[in-house]
Amino acid sequence: MSRSDPTNLQPFVDRLLARSVLTPDEIQAILALPVHPVEVRGQTDFVQVNEKTSCACFIASGMVARFGETRDGQRQITAFHIPGDMVDLNSVVRPIAVGGLTTLCNTTILEVPHTAIRALAVRYPAVAEAFWRDTMLDAAILMQWVVNVGKQRAKTRLAHIFCEMAIRLGGDRQILQEYDFPVSQERLAEAAGMTGVHVNRSLKALREEGLVTVKRYSVKIHDWQRLAQTGEFEADYLVADTGTDRRARLLAGD
């Protein structure tokens, strides 16, 4: 199976390896997990809030938003998920969706059975720990979003989101100055806790200040430092930290 194979879990392994040390056998065991590819059209809810689930969903391509809803149907997006993310790994231990999942564009999902993930975690404790660290990253992102949406002004909220996505989409390679962003203003408003009109005005202000231009499905950052300052953005919560120096030395024979 090649890295370009759409059913390959290698991007998920790469994400895990950014924060954990795994042996070749452990890596191969993850790559051998059974998957079921599903093509989902854009703007489709494929997991409902409080739905009972039997698999975790890996994003092979496309983009997904996690959301909650009020009783009258208003949505709050709580995360954007990108290729390489296992968006609901936490569902393995609690198979009830605490948030719904919707596609933002045509997306390929790989469904991975909970039973297979649990068996893998039991057999390889280090893999279970790597999964744990992965869910901790999701929790750190959520915490930042809560503060951003709950306490920041409009321009700051949007600038923070654009900075976060520039780093996450760049992976461990670079901060992307330009990237695809298939998120409508309506969805961006749901993520930032703003009205569509307010989002439009704030995007215009950011553009006129020479910080960022957001066109249909793309973001172009003109001044990273000023955009990060406007968004009160610090990337520490996204920085890879394996926290496993001792295991790395043991595996290296030191």
UniProtKB/TrEMBL annotation:
The record ties this protein, via SMART domains, to: HTH_CRP
Q: Transcription regulation: present as a keyword of the record? A: yes
Keyword Ribosomal protein present in the record's keywords: the answer is no
Gene Ontology molecular function: any one: DNA binding
- State a single Pfam family of this protein: HTH_Crp_2
* Residue ranges of domain HTH crp-type in the record: 152-225
Which GO biological process entries does UniProt record here?
regulation of DNA-templated transcription
Q: Kindly give the InterPro entries that the UniProt entry links to this protein.
A: cNMP-bd_dom (IPR000595), cNMP-bd_dom_sf (IPR018490), HTH_CRP (IPR012318), RmlC-like_jellyroll (IPR014710), WH-like_DNA-bd_sf (IPR036388), WH_DNA-bd_sf (IPR036390)
Which CDD domains is this protein grouped with?
A: CAP_ED
UniProt keyword terms in alphabetical order: DNA-binding, Transcription, Transcription regulation
**Lineage: superkingdom:** Bacteria
Protein known as = Crp/Fnr family transcriptional regulator
